[in-house]
Design goal:
CATH architecture of the largest domain in chain A: Alpha-Beta Barrel
Number of domains of chain A: 2
Helix content of chain A: 25-40%
CATH superfamily of the largest domain in chain A: D-amino Acid Aminotransferase, subunit A, domain 2
CATH topology of the largest domain in chain A: D-amino Acid Aminotransferase, Chain A, domain 2
Strand content of chain A: 25-35%
Largest interface: A-B, 58 and 58 residues
Mean pLDDT of chain A: 96
Oligomer: homodimer
Number of strands of chain A: 16
Chain lengths: ~270, ~270
């Protein structure tokens, strides 16, 4: 673990990341000493810092730190947190706050291979995402909604429901994302993904799937999606940088058993990673 | 500064307070080695922990820690943060996570005495609070909306507007609170404060003002308030545990110069503190 370039596993209790969740983060997959899609992650980090009015650390600096992390941990999950750093009392950010850079590592989670091939069961969470255009798309550190939704999923699992992901609707009733993933529908040969201009996190794996669709001449729609439409889709699948792509085989009363488009996209993304 | 009862000024980078803003906090005023209204603060802490499904630390334990802080810093602002502690990767809280207890201290801010007697100018922020009933009232660590609103207020000050607080409307257009305070209106002898069941933070100073009104036979209404109604009120004022009570003397095009009810309530609260 590195904090501002120095080996360490702690930060100040006056860091705004702790005080206000005033920061952003990235979760990267490391394979053979290489962080997959680093340029996309850095672009997203820049974008998110701009949305919060934060200084984004220099790419060369972050790359040098990432190399140190990868030298020790060539395979697994690398997490980068960038906070607005320390400042005096009060919510107002000071113009001269230097961002805090935090790197952490964890082994790759032990997901069953069938998740990618056979699909997963998903649970519709009762928590509704709040609408906040100023924070929409940004992977910031204010993640209590995800925590509450994940707790709901935990409860469902304790009650015997074998759901591997929870899906979230927003306050307007539209389907937005999973607790830790983005969502796609396949319907009549088109790829559809929820509009994230009011809430949700736009992950880089979502961007990769969208790029794949455009490169392969598949019609792509980014728009509001209702749960009912998802239940009637030919396929649905979730994506993130750690799981890759998992089809959904069961949601509410609906079951799916074939995921030809999801499989094609998953293979396409895997080939890019290889 | 104390972290889990031990002098220190850092926490683990794996603490959920940093990772997700998964925790709550209290800001207390210390006077002559005594924390004002500790029983109210502890009740609120318990309430907030319940809303997040977190274990609230035992009161005796917190009191012992608070005494240590007050022995060193008898006068000023004491901040207590309680996070859900550490747990494995992922949003889901583990049932056995032990909360992290963080105490910090800062001197009393150097506010001009006229703020309380002459009133302040307030600015209406353009940021709209998002609606999330699951988190409403709770003083949790997901405070990016307050940060963005305070940044707006900063900008207004840089452009010459001498506003000392920013007022926030919610996504539905109702007036909710200040960036770091709760809000009251006085109209036709009645005291009105915004309903916080959809968003906002219910501070303990708000509760004290409400209790004062009931004890003094003043009609109290907790309901939706529009900005227009505030602009037509006989008086408006903001409260929190550090500033106490400040009347508003200027908001948009409206000016106020007399605050008899606000002054009466301020004196009433001050007498309870003495």
């Amino acid at each position: 673990m590195l904090v501002n370039g120095v080996p360490g596993n702690s930060i100040s209790i006056r860091d705004r990341g702790l005080l206000y969740g005033d920061g952003v983060f990235r979760t990267l997959r490391a394979v053979n000493g290489k962080a997959l899609h680093w340029p996309l992650h850095y672009l997203k980090l820049q974008h998110d810092c701009v949305k919060l009015g934060m200084t984004c650390p220099d790419e060369a600096l972050l790359c040098a730190e990432l190399d140190k992390v990868l030298a020790q941990h060539p395979d697994g999950v690398v997490k980068l947190i960038v906070t607005r750093g320390q400042s005096g009392r009060g919510y107002a950010p000071s113009a001269d706050a230097a961002p805090t850079r935090i790197w952490d590592f964890s082994p790759i989670p032990d997901y069953p291979a069938e998740c990618a091939t056979q699909g997963i069961k998903a649970h519709v969470c009762s928590l509704r995402l709040s609408i906040q255009p100023r924070l929409a798309c940004v992977k910031h550190l204010n993640r209590l909604e995800n925590v509450l939704a994940a707790a709901e999923l935990n409860d469902a699992q304790l009650h015997g429901e074998q759901a591997a992901e929870g899906l979230l609707l927003d306050a307007g009733g539209y389907l937005i994302e999973g607790t830790r993933s983005n969502l796609f529908l396949v319907a009549q040969g088109r790829l559809v993904t929820p509009d994230l201009s009011r809430c949700g996190v736009a992950g880089i794996q979502r961007g990769r799937v969208m790029a794949w669709a455009l490169q392969h001449g598949m019609t792509l729609q980014v728009r509001d999606v209702e749960l009912e439409e998802a239940l009637q889709a030919d396929e649905i699948f979730i994506v993130n940088s750690v799981i890759g792509l998992w089809p959904i085989r069961e949601l509410e009363q609906r079951h799916w058993s074939h995921f030809p488009v999801a499989a094609q996209i998953r293979h396409g993304l895997d080939r890019q990673d290889a």
